[in-house]
Design goal:
The chain has ten helices and two strands, in the order ααβαααααβααα. By secondary structure, the protein is mainly alpha-helical. It has two domains: 32 residues; 191 residues, Biosynthetic peptidoglycan transglycosylase-like (Penicillin binding protein transpeptidase fold), CATH 1.10.3810. The chain has a two-stranded parallel sheet with strand order 1-2. Helix 1 packs across helix 6 and helix 3 packs across helix 10.
Length: 235
């Protein structure tokens, strides 16, 4: 009996501190730049154990108002066209993804993660695939939607996304690939970055294959029709 009482006490303490630390962390990161993400640490470890890759971690935190407005519009178009309207979860996109996957069994599954979910996963969790991680992802998605603005979610997203081997965020990527700050990205360059997001370690924005070029053209066409209130920038 005493064992179960102790176990209950310990469980309650762990649960209490989990909520305190998780909520506190989300509130702090509402104002403080994200220093690194679990994915960045994993990639550094992979590079260290791979003789063919150099250990590289390029990132340069940049405020949203110092990033070309074409960039958030491009990623909203390609990743989450209802970004401004949903509360972290897009049920319409989930249903469409399920229908697509049922029609294309045996092919690569289509996901329906929103930008908010991707931020929650990349900032607070390790990139594993299981139901437990998914539950925590939904929890942190709810927290950032409560405590962060959409502008902050977008700012964090654009600063932590992987855009090459050891390259994170649009400022570092813009400097690396196009030799200019993210503020100077034009609409085609922004669309190209958005086009490589599914496979940033295999696809290049400066040497795009036919599939990447096709994705870029699709994004460019649809950027003009996406209904975005707070982010615009089609040059």
């Amino acid at each position: 009996m005493k064992f179960w009482e102790n176990a209950k006490t310990i469980t309650l303490k762990i649960t209490k501190w989990f909520f305190i630390l998780s909520i506190g962390g989300v509130i702090i990161f509402r104002f403080v730049p994200i220093p690194f993400t679990p994915l960045m640490l994993i990639r550094c470890a992979e590079q260290a154990f791979d003789d063919k890759r150099e250990v590289r971690l390029k990132k340069d935190w940049t405020s949203l108002d110092e990033i070309s407005p074409s960039m958030p519009l491009a990623v909203i178009t390609s990743e989450d066209q209802r970004f401004e309207d949903h509360f972290g979860i897009d049920m319409e996109a989930i249903q469409k993804a399920q229908n697509y996957n049922e029609r294309h069994k045996g092919k690569r599954l289509k996901g329906a993660s929103t930008i908010s979910q991707q931020v929650a996963k990349n900032v607070f969790l390790f990139p594993t695939r299981n139901y437990i991680r998914k539950a925590f992802e939904l929890y942190f998605t709810f927290l950032i939607e409560v405590f962060w603005s959409k502008e902050r979610i977008m700012e964090v997203y654009l600063n932590i996304i992987e855009l090459g081997d050891g390259i994170y965020g649009v400022e570092a990527a813009s400097q690396h690939y196009f030799k200019k700050p993210a503020a100077k990205l034009d609409v085609r360059e922004a669309a190209m970055f958005a086009a490589i997001l599914p496979l940033p370690l295999k696809w290049s924005p400066v040497k795009p294959n036919a599939r990447v070029q096709k994705r870029q053209q699709w994004i460019l066409r649809h950027m003009r029709y996406v209904d975005v209130k707070d982010f615009n920038g089609v040059d």
